[in-house]
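Appendix B, record 7
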Amino acid sequence: MTFSTKLKDEICNEEINRIEILSELSAIVRFDATITLEKIILTFENGSVARRVFKDFKILFNLSPHIIIRNQKRLRAKQIYILEIKENVLNILQTLNILKNNQFIDMKKEYLSTQSEMASFVRATFLVSGSINDPSTSGYHLEYVLNKKNDALFFNNLLHEMKFDSKVLERNGKYMVYLKSAEEISDMIRLFQASQCLFYFEDIRIYRDHKNMVNRLNNCEIANQEKSTSTGLRQVEDICYLQENDLMDLLDEKVKLVMEYRLKYPESSYQELADIIALETDYQIGKSGINHHFIKLKKLVDQHKKNCL
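Structure tokens (predicted):
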């Protein structure tokens, strides 16, 4: 079972009031139904969604849609649920703000006057046109695929009003409204009131964030170690240059001590070198002191090379 299916099943188990049912059916019929003035046909692959819609029609309009179940064997065996409504079609379409004066109309914001109605509309749209990646197997992605550009633009604006930074993309003649932010997808699942799926999503999200943080820290540590090693090897070359050219006597004893320990520990960082010197000798020195000595060393090497030109 996919994460999308689990999420839809959990949504369908939540109880909602009659006002929310109205918004829910408005989205489902508008975005998923085949509509004429004589009948409404709804087709679902998810049995939980089919049962939910059947129940919604019974509660709101006191009618039971005719149900047809077909077995589809293409690619993989699955059941298709078809709900057919032939009773009181005009009244249903008018009540759901889909039809006015026998003309089909676009969805408008004023049809959703409260936050709960907007949430129900968004939640129902996910049931019939939405999908979400399983966060454990891929990146974060939640999308709604709608057939009409006007519907997609309205839905995108509705999400923006609800503080979601969604975007619209045309794809294969249809329109995808999508979210990529893990935080926003988490907020969307919370809007769906799907607590079990939310816990699962957040667990995976925390794990992935922690893993990414550890990887970043490891990368930083590796980069710092490589930098320390590279710096140490260059300093060893400078010390060898001074030794080969009999220039070590130009350095004071403390600098010579630091040079001696650099030759012993060429890959150590400044802080590690300072700790070793402080531990093994009477010379208490810090990271900045080590750096200061190597600056003196570098100046002496550069000056000698310049004089030899």
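Remarks on this record: The chain has two domains: 3-193, 216-308. The longest strand covers residues 78-85.
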